[in-house]
Fold these 4 entries.
Entry 1:
Amino acid sequence: MNLESHKRAIEERLRAIDRAVIDGLERNQRNLGFNVSVVVIDMLEVYLHREGHLSLSASLNHEWFSSVRRANEHVVWDFQRKEKIIGLIVRMEEKRNILVYGRPQVRKDLEAYLELFNEIKEAFHDLGVLDE
């Protein structure tokens, strides 16, 4: 996927997350879990493409972030804030399947997931991913 396509995909997912918040987290937990997972991986791909670590024809799989060890086996390049970003994505992915496939979660757990997403988004914003 080229960088312009990534940018459009990120914007689409961010709008979907905003809609989930506006329409009510409890009614949109599956949308939240799915879209957060997809957009975070897309942001990481954009960053790695831009830094020349990942070719435009390559992509990442959210399942690679089931643990820090597994993520580091697949994301082998060094980059700014790698340890923090990988750690946050792993924490996010630990909750993804619960939100997407599990029973309804309480609002405070959904809000905590959204806070985790905002922390990841801020890290990518600081790296210039969301400014492109």
Entry 2:
Amino acid sequence: MTATHAAVTGLAARIEHVGHKLYMDNFVSSPALFDNLHTKTINYCGTLRPNRMGMLKNFGHTMKLKSGVLKTKLKGNLTAIVWKDKQNTEKHVFSTMGG
């Protein structure tokens, strides 16, 4: 567990098993943290850096996307989305806030 993972888990301890939603930026987010929060009934949505440990296989900076193209991948309750914007920058979002 990284220091940022421990900090977020500690701050979120008061909202465990209540069903709250947590939004994060790519500075603290990681697949391991998202899995941990999901086991505590905390839904999340956040951007993610493509080189984080635990990133979904064949999903991220190794993909060759054209501008405006959107790709999604599902893993259990996790939805991963990657797209390339007009500035030719890839964006990555992970979420468990599905329908």
Entry 3:
Amino acid sequence: MQWQIDPAHTSVDFAVRHLGISTVRGHFTKLSGTIETTDDGRLQSLEAAIGTGSIDTREEERNAHLRSADFLDAARNPAIVFRSTSVTLQEERHYSVRGDLTLRGETHPVDLELEVTEPIKDPWGNIRAAATGEGRLNRENWGLTWNQVSDFGRRLFGDEVRFRLEVEAVAKPPVAAG
């Protein structure tokens, strides 16, 4: 069964340490993707694209810097793309997902832990399901090495990026034969 990610009901949030003393959080506002499941609902694969230009940390100057060539280089790399390479059922409705994350033209593996919901029928007759996921990555693996050192000897940004996904998807109706 194929599912389409519903961008109006999906979020991709991230968190990075700032000066080693606090955490800066942000999210992306543009994303799309597809999910494949077996007919009985077991997750098989997923693919998603996140618009790099849609980054939002509630601070426009910081957003502009994150879109620049120092970080996401949104002008030349309009999307971050994730494609699953393996999906392992850990326990009922809990999966470990490994996939290739392409960012700034570089691709490296990333692991996600996902928990999925039972599908439901919405008031308009669509079948919907959702998933919550978490993961971590080291931004330097993708060449995101820009940093500064403060007067106190602390790096401005941490290397680890923690991210959280809240995904809602709508089942695509089957294509009629003939």
Entry 4:
Amino acid sequence: MVRPGSPETLTILRGIFRGCKRESFDILIFDYHGEVTGWREVARGSSSHVEISLPDLFSTAVLCGAKALVVAHNHPGDDPTPSREDIILTERLATAGELVGCPILDHIIIADSCHYSFRRSW
């Protein structure tokens, strides 16, 4: 059983982002029981940046039956430090998730050998 914040969540995300040379923004979809039911890539960018659309992200989540999400993106290389844009985006995602009834449980940035979890700072 994979639950938010579990080591299995990181294992899934590391598998998704393994070998990615460009930034990708993905969602892990959780059901009412807090278990992962799937994942989707919602945007792909360059080696240093990815743009996402909140309407596209949440419409994908709703179409997949998500009751909650863990959002994640990768930083190719070994520095998962969030940028100012990452911080602002996380705040916008959290607000939007509450408004549409699909809370954001965490935003995780995956780097080659480490990660950053916004959940730890909430």
